Every structure is written in structure tokens, then in C-alpha cells.
Amino acid sequence: MFTSLEVCPDDPILQLMVHARADTNPLKVDLSVGIYKDDMGKTPVMDCVKAAEQRRLEQEDSKAYLGLAGDLRFNKLVTELVLGPSHAALADKRVSTIQTTGGSGAIRIAAELIKRIKPGTRVWVSDPTWANHIPLLKSAGLEIATYAYYQSGEKGVRFTEMMQDLSAGAQSGDVILLQGSCHNPCGEDLSLEQWQHLAEFVLDRGLLPFVDIAYHGISKNLDEDSLGWRHMAASVPEMLISYSGSKNFSLYRDRIGALISISPNPATAHILLTNMMNISRVVYSVPPAHGGFLIAEILEDDELRKMWMFELDQIRLRVNQMRNGLADRLQERLSSDRFEFIRDQQGMFSFLGISVEQVLSMRESHSIYLLNSSRVNIAGVTSSNIDHLVDAIVSVQP
Ligand code: LMR
Predict the structure, then answer these.
(1) What is the pTM of this model?
(2) Closest atom of ligand 1 to CA, residue 11
(3) What total number of domains does the chain contain?
(4) pLDDT tens for each residue of 55-83
(5) Do 336 and 389 fall within a single domain?
(6) Using 50, 70 and 90 to split pLDDT, how confident is the model at 105?
(7) Structural domain includes residue 59
(8) Is the peptide bond before 44 cis (omega within 30 degrees of 0)?
(9) Would the CB of 75 count as within 6 Å of ligand 1?
(10) Rounded to whole angstroms, how far apart are CA atoms 190 and 136?
(11) Domain containing residue 320
(12) Which DSSP string corresponds to 360-383?
């Protein structure tokens, strides 16, 4: 039976990360997977996480399963972090949350949930979007449509074209997938005004907004980053949110995330919760406990929360420093503003806006690893590799 299978294509992000790790060139620069690295090129465990882990070591008295919803303390605290503690949907008991295995686990469960509501539902995703969004949604048999969002090598969201695409094609009952902040892969986010405009459109057209939040706090700060999706959540009767703690808590391998739903009333919220738990049971049963405990501990304890917010600031500041460093150097070397867009984009990613041939040439001649789409993880740039990177970018210019 096995021989009927065919070889799968490499994952465009994770396989490139493996290739980069295997490269022994001391000058190699890995800008592939979206992992934060410090200026030494390391992905350290946050101090707040270390402190919470110490407490876990002391307090944990059982390895018995969590329930299907995961860690209830985590669910409550993370929901308040996302929506703000005084959000009306929370007071009205219209919100249901389960802990998931990372943001991807949340998206997969959401996809199954949408399929239960209506098989083959059409989901509108941005062009471009994160490389795993479409596979995750398609794995539940959902249909994909795209709306214009960003043109590689340019500055700003193509909001007019986005709204034209949605106005022309989106129909009542469709889902629209949006990213909360630090858009992956382009680094361009919607402004608050654009979120407001979109919320009206979503309501008017009868769409279900699904917001994927993987970089909360990494664009500006926790509250400012939340303005757009909180406005959406306050405007619509129903909404889905997938949340990842991989990047903002640096807990990548602990696979911690959440799926949050907002319903029109508490009775429907209960139905949603039972469905989310029921799907979790047939996907991976119960989530792992470690990451949920850590985030709950950090969010609940004033001192740990302060430490976390400070460390989150450091991540954002370093990424922005590298953005400025790259934009300055490329400006100087090329005497052109062509790469100026890198300075103002948000979060870990930008496209360089170069061809696949140029990307491959940087890989082969300089051991610099970026995705074929020319997406770079800015957090992989350090003060020691930035000049090598700039040399490589300059060398592939026509
Ligand atoms: C990325 O886009 O590089 C990250 O979100 C990691 C992943 O799973 O793709």
C-alpha cells in the first residue's frame, strides 16, 4: 500500500531552515524561518520564561492530562490579553477559548470548525499570505480565494485593490482571514482606519472575520497592536481568532497557542466551546501543559509580566534597529531609495523584492538563506552579519 504514495514537496520554510542549519560556511546567514534571534544570532529563552519554569518545577505535582480545553487559567488570561480585560464580549459571556498546540493548531481546529458549519466554505486570504495558511485551510476541504494585499518591493497595503476584490467577490457566509499585526510575509499592516472600514464591510456583507495573531506586541506594543482586531471584535456578532505564543513569548518548540471564538450570545458560545473541544479530541486530543502554565504564570504575576513586557520591547527594538541598519546601508551602497520600504515595515518579515534567480545566487555564492519569494527574517540580521548580507544584496543587483 505504501508504494502508492508520492514524495511530498519540501516545506518552503522549515526545509530551508534545515538546509541552512547544515551549511558549515562560518559566514552563513539564516534569514529563513521566522524565529527571533538576538545580536549574537541566538534564540535565548526569555528570563521571564526561565523564572516561570522554575516555579513550575517547584509546583507541578502531576502529569495527568489537562482537559480538552487545556489550561483554563491560560485561556482566561490570554483571552483578556487579546481582547482587553473589559471587552463587552467578555462581560456578555460570548467568548469561548481553548488552548491549542501553537497558532497552527488553532488554525487547523478553526478550519475544521468552519467545515462543520458549512463544508467547502470559501476563505478569503491575502495575496501574499503565510505559506502554511492555505495548506492548513485546504486540509479541511475549504475553498480559497485571494484578495490583493501587497506588491513585493513596494511600500504600503494595496487597500483600494483589496476592497475592490472583496467587493466584487465576497459573499455572505464567506470567511475573511486577516492577520493581527506584523503581516507574514510582507510586514505591512492595516491601519486602524482600514480595520474600521473593513469591519463595516464585513458586517454589511455578512462575512465571518478570522484574525490570525502570531506577533502580538512586536509591532508597536501590546495595546496598540490590538486596536484593529479589538475594533473588529466589538463590531461583529461572530469572529474567530487564532493566537500564537511562539514569537512573543519565544516558546516556539513548546507549541502554545489558543483558539478564541466570539458568538452572538452565551448559549451559542457554549455550543462553540463544545465543538472546539470535540475537534481537538480527534486532532491531537489534549494540548501539552508546559507552555500554557508558563504564559499563565507570566500574565498573572505583576513582576513576571513586567519582565516579559521589557523583553518584548527588546525584541521589537532590535528588529527595528536592524531594519534601519539595512535600509541605511543599502541606501548608501546603491545610492537609491529602492529598499527604503524595509525601514517602515513591521515585525520580522519583509520581501526584498528580488527574483528567485537572485535569491538562489545569494544562497549559492554567499550562504545567505531567504525564502524563494525573497522574504527575509529581519530578526536573523545581526551587527556581525549585516555587512556580508548587504554585500550579497548589492552583488546580485543588475
Ligand atoms: C514562519 O513563517 O517562518 C514561521 O511562522 C514559522 C513557520 O511555521 O512557518
Answers:
(1) 0.97
(2) 9
(3) 2
(4) 999 999 999 999 999 999 999 999 999 99
(5) yes
(6) very high
(7) no
(8) no
(9) no
(10) 23
(11) 2-45+316-395
(12) HHHHHHH-EE--TT-EEEGGG--T
